[in-house]
Amino acid sequence: MITGACRIEMIIYGALSLKDKRRVIKSLLDRVRSRYNVSVAEVGRNDKWKTTVIGISTVSNSAIQVKKVLDAVIKFIEGDGRVEVTGYHIDII
After folding, report:
1. What is the pLDDT of residues 65-86, one digit of tens each?
2. Domain count, the chain
3. pLDDT given at position 64
4. What is the CATH number of the domain that holds 51?
5. Are the beta carbons of 66 and 92 closer than 8 angstroms?
């Protein structure tokens, strides 16, 4: 069993309050979950309204497949105009 975890740091554009941030993040996380069948959650900077950190994990029997899924998720998030990815880190175990 191969497990992949990814930590993504982002800036949220247009968020003027924590409520705005939550709306954007909830929408984005729901779309990622349904499209890629991964576990995803906000894991950092919960009290900041312009930035966030999300964590994504997936499991497969192939390290190549895990890397492909995580890369696809990152590319999907980078394509969302409401956020900007400022950094990410992938661990494959």
Report:
1. 999 999 999 999 999 888 999 9
2. 1
3. 94
4. 3.30.70.1120
5. yes
